[in-house]
Amino acid sequence: MNKVILKNNPIGFMDSGLGGLSVLREAIRLMPKEDFVYFGDSKNAPYGTKSTDEIVSLTFRAVETLMSYNPKALVIACNTATGAAIGLLREKYKGIPIIGIEPAIKPAVICSQGGRIIVMATPMTIKQKKFLDLLDTYKYEAEIIPVPCPGLMEFVEEGNFNQAVLNEYFDVHLKASLTDNTESIVLGCTHYPFLKKQIENYLENKKINLIDGSKGTSSELKRQLEYKDWLRKDNHIGEIKILNSSKDEGLIHLSKNLIKLSME
Ligand code: DGL
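Above: inputs. Below: predicted complex with D-glutamic acid.
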């Protein structure tokens, strides 16, 4: 990277679709003076059921698009893309911080009272070496059960938050892993925080914490920019640009709604 990095440059975010907006909303809360450019690759979603090679090449293509905005940092706001491509991206783009996201197992273990920790994630995230290493790190500290959730991100992409339909999904994919001693569920895909209310409703009165990595990732982004003295200090009100690989204008509208909802 030989472009000049200026404090006023935006921060780039990418995801396979709209999920990364759950991370972006935290970043906006933390750094309201910053400009953000978000790229959702909804045309090629889902990533979580594709091969590693396909995910790597799609992630690089998405990042190329963001690079034309000369970002001062990049957030790979997708657990699946982070697992597949973060090392390769850091090798290619050395001039700026590149922050990834991984299922928030560490915070779940830190506040564990000895119960079961379920990790909901895409099938690909659960197969990746990065994830298996993470499980290995904490295997003696808690019972951690990965639950692959093929097809779940699609509900968010379609703007379908219908409780009854989602209950049917959870009956098939989640129910069998829920035990009386389940104490937390890690939302290991950035789409899932947008289904938090529906998951809570499904769990009814069970006392189960839902944990995601959006706050940790945004804090890490801020920490790295602060360290470089690349955070804006003027009175600028941050602007947010949302791009999508799909031609469906409805997705931009839905993206803006998700951000608005999440800012409340
Ligand atoms: N939002 C993405 C993640 O965090 C993945 C969804 C998908 O494309 O399958 O893993």
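The beta strands are 11-15, 36-40, 73-76, 98-99, 116-121, 143-148, 182-187, 209-211, 240-244.
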